[in-house]
TrEMBL record:
Listed name of the protein: UPF0237 protein IAA81_01775
Domain (ACT): residue spans on this chain: 9-85
Coiled-coil ranges (or none): none
NCBIfam families xrefs: PRK00194.1 (NF001220)
Taxonomic source organism: Candidatus Gallitreponema excrementavium
Stated family: Belongs to the UPF0237 family.
């Protein structure tokens, strides 16, 4: 059964380039983080991706994962953000 407490939303935004999805998903796989859902598009040359992930079996704590993703984003010249799914939902409730 899926534990919503261990779900997070990852957003990636920046200029489109080869390898963004590959590098982000490779990092997640290496940390034993499962991609539950993924959506990506190109809007006026900007790459936009949202992922729902399950980090219940992650090898690191969520704060470390978040920092790693920020650093990965910097290396790719994109912005990567991670929010717990409950926090994300509360922020986007209408």
């Amino acid at each position: 059964m899926e534990n919503r407490d261990s779900n997070a939303v990852i957003t990636v935004v920046g200029t489109d380039q080869v390898g963004i999805i590959s590098k982000v998903s490779s990092y997640l796989a290496g940390e034993n983080i499962n991609i539950v859902d993924i959506s990506q598009t190109i809007l006026s040359g900007s790459f936009v991706m949202m992922m729902m992930v399950d980090y219940s079996a992650a090898l690191k704590k969520i704060g470390e994962i978040k920092q790693d993703l920020v650093e990965l984003g910097e290396s790719l010249n994109v912005s990567i953000n991670l929010l717990n799914q409950k926090v994300f939902s509360a922020m986007h409730r209408i």
